[in-house]
Amino acid sequence: MAQPLPALNFNPKIPGFQGGSGEPSSWLAENTYPGAVLYVYAFRSFSGDFAVQFRQTLLREFIQKDLQELRLAASPSIGAMQVPGADAALYARFVEDYWGTPRHRLRVAVLATKAVAIVDYVAHDADSFQHSINGVTEMLKSMSVGAQQVAKSPTAQQTAAAKSLAGLYLGSALQFVPSPVLGAPTGSGSWMPGTRFYLLSSDGKVHRGYGLPKAPGGDIRRFDFEKAKLEDPQNSGEFVVEGARVILRLGGGIAPEAVSSKLPAPGGALEFYGTLYKRQPLQ
Predict the structure, then answer these.
(1) Which end of the chain has fewer CB atoms within 10 angstroms, the N or the C?
(2) Which segments of 136-264 are extended strands (E)?
(3) 175-187 pLDDT, tens digit each
């Protein structure tokens, strides 16, 4: 039987970054222009000489095709680092020649149990790279390798609790509204008061957004969670009742966002990030 792949553990709350969804999981650097992105690729099977192959190809074959570097502007700087639980870990600092434009990158490859995970930091210029490198460094310090956790089936009690929580929850929250002025700088806008929702299904699915959920005929009971997951994975996920709390895991990927609230009284409100979300009739 094939040996289970290990898991790359790290703190997903990366200073100066937001996001964390998708595959590879991606985090967008805040307050940078033209910007920088941190990608994390889960462990995949690997065979061969890890050190030799990394020095020859930087393991670009493990990178998503449209994100692979085509040519380097200079020889990369390569070194070793320590990652708890790993057999070996190497990093490369290099500059990619992206059709005449330099893109600055830092790539870390982690070897464990004949499998490799990749962390790839891509910045569109040197200033963006330096602006957010401290957050990347903190994330790398938090990394370790462990066993892949097997998802447990919910107990009958948890299933019953999830059904009792199913419903639409509304609360007040600020929403960023892009500037409508023609010619305004990219990313300009303002924060405006609005309504945010969390929609929980009786079978443990959750979706959040602003305004109200879009459902056929306006009937929230017909909301398509699978379609929402495809269109907006960062705000879709599952929830489970654990003890006296309800845990929401949104975004999927390697490190889903975890949101929790105390279990409310029947028909009561849930509290996420300090905001109360009141339960609404499903109509």
Answers:
(1) N
(2) 144-147, 167-178, 189-200, 205-210, 236-242, 245-250, 257-262
(3) 777 767 665 555 5
